[in-house]
Write a structure and sequence with these properties.
53% of the residues lie in helices and 0% in strands. By secondary structure, it is mostly helical. It has one domain: Orthogonal Bundle (Cytochrome Bc1 Complex, Chain D, domain 2). The longest helix has 20 residues.
Length: 184
């Protein structure tokens, strides 16, 4: 192949790509699903990006009941609208997102590690609706959510209610209506 053919090929590919963008030929609507090949490629890019960035994260102990409870309260307030909870029907938000967020209350066959979950919660994922929670939450709070999420598919509806009911320092239950907690 000579240099002139390579340059011509690049110019044609650039022109085609520019035309697709300029004329709006690619539909960005969330209810217009990706082609199978496109979806596979995007999932591979996402999964590899997470794995590479999470591989050096040190995972703390995640089995402390107080840590799990704190993570449960944050999960109920911040995550359940998209990722659902035990006994919770799919929300409009969950149903309307594409790609659809995982339902963490269902048995998972995830290949994501604790470090992967931490990285995703902390940094978010572009163009998925998954926000980066790090601007408003500490690493400790994010690890609490990871600790809870890792237990979530084994938690009953009643256990979820108990874990997500806020308590004060003495362990006394606070009433949701008094404290503005949005419960599900």
């Amino acid at each position: 192949m000579n240099k002139k053919m390579i340059i011509s090929g690049i110019a044609i590919a650039t022109l085609v790509l520019f035309s697709i963008i300029w004329f709006g030929l690619y539909n960005v609507a969330a209810n217009d699903k990706h082609y199978a090949l496109t979806l596979s490629l995007l999932e591979m890019v996402r999964d590899r990006s997470i794995k590479v960035r999470a591989e050096d994260i040190e995972i703390p102990e995640l089995d402390d009941p107080q840590q799990i409870k704190a993570g449960a309260v944050n999960y109920a307030q911040m995550c359940s609208g998209c990722h659902l909870a035990p006994g919770m029907s799919p929300t409009e938000l969950h149903q309307g997102l594409y790609p659809q967020p995982p339902n963490f209350s269902q048995p998972r066959h995830s290949h994501h590690t604790s470090a992967d979950l931490f990285w995703v919660i902390k940094n978010g994922i572009k163009m998925t609706g998954m926000p980066a929670w790090s601007p408003a939450h500490t690493d400790q709070q994010i690890w609490q959510m990871v600790a809870f999420i890792e237990q979530l598919d084994d938690i009953s509806v009643e256990q979820y209610r108990q874990l997500t009911t806020p308590t004060d320092e003495s362990g006394t239950t606070k009433h949701d209506s008094e404290h503005g907690v949005h419960s599900h």
